[in-house]
Amino acid sequence: MADSAFLFRNAADSRLDNTNSVSNNQPLTGRTILIAYSAPQELRAELEVVGARLISWPKLDISPPETYASLDEAIENLFGYDWLIFRNVNAVTFFLGRLQELGHEISELDSVRVCAVRQEALQQLEESHVHVDVIPEGLSTQQVFEAIETYTGGRSAIRGLNFLVPSAGPYPTSLQKALEDAGARADLATTYRTCSTSDFYRISALLRGGAFDCVSFTSASEVLELAQLFDANDLGELLKEVAVACIDQEAAQCAAKFGLAVNITASAVDATALAQAIAFYFLR
Fold first, then answer.
1. Which fold, 69-190?
2. Which of 31, 61, 69, 215 is deepest in the core (most CB within 10 A)?
3. Burial 212-239 (b: 16+ CB within 10 A, else e)
């Protein structure tokens, strides 16, 4: 810990001297870190001292979509679907709300199979008297697909089935790909949104372009927030090739639930320790 404190003091001195060292004084020079918009200012300062570029994901704002066009079309043609997959409680809330706004009855869902991912989604469906046929044991795409595969009687039985997945946007997902690879049709219907469209596309483009070297989580709630933001139960797919840093075991365990392999864990539950751990990871 003495060496790490020395490194951070040197970095601070370098900044004050207005030098541009890319050596041990600023080990994160050239590295870009994805961080929560609400991340502690202390963490931001510590990371910037050692040269990191920080980009925040936008504030989570669950709201109705800009247009219900794709959802309305799906609801009006519900008879054409064999399955409904609800991946979170937001999908349940907005889908059922819109279903009833359009004059349909909950009982109309009796004609389709329903898969509920996550306990909150299951609870709301049961409270709304929607039957649930499949409850995956976990959140990952593989676990959801395998649960449906087991229920239908095997991969070959999925071929030709039509799935409707209420989502935060028409953005391709690993679940959609898995179903289509098995010969099914999987439609994503925009049912709600998680932030402004421009913010979503900006961060999505940066992720697709490999802009981030690391993502930092200072709490389990930040992991949940990022998963909701991207409407993703499988963050491992979204953040592949990105180092994952967690401030404590609670955050690390939550990250693991969403398919993330944690590369960096702070030696103490504070911002300085997390920043130091990230710096040393990239010094290796």
1. Rossmann fold (3.40.50)
2. 215
3. bbbbbbbbbebbbbbbbbbbbbbbbbbb
